[in-house]
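Section 4.2 – Deliverable D4.2 (structural model, holo form)

The reporting period included a commitment to supply a predicted holo structure for the target in complex with zinc ion. Inputs used:
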Amino acid sequence: MKCPYCQSGNLEGALICASCGRDVAVPATLIAERDDLSRKRDALRAELRQARDEMEAIMQRRKSR
Ligand SMILES: [Zn+2]
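Output (structure tokens):
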């Protein structure tokens, strides 16, 4: 786990950075929320790509007519 302040490596689950002494503990709820958000982001990205592909297909069809 990296310290967000000084970027030095710390043991997993460390509460305080061994290098700069700052509080680096992240609540599990925040980590879960982040994971959830990144999953949603990936899903939205896939949806966006699909929509773009569909739009391009429609444009291609229009062009060929
Ligand atoms: Zn640090």
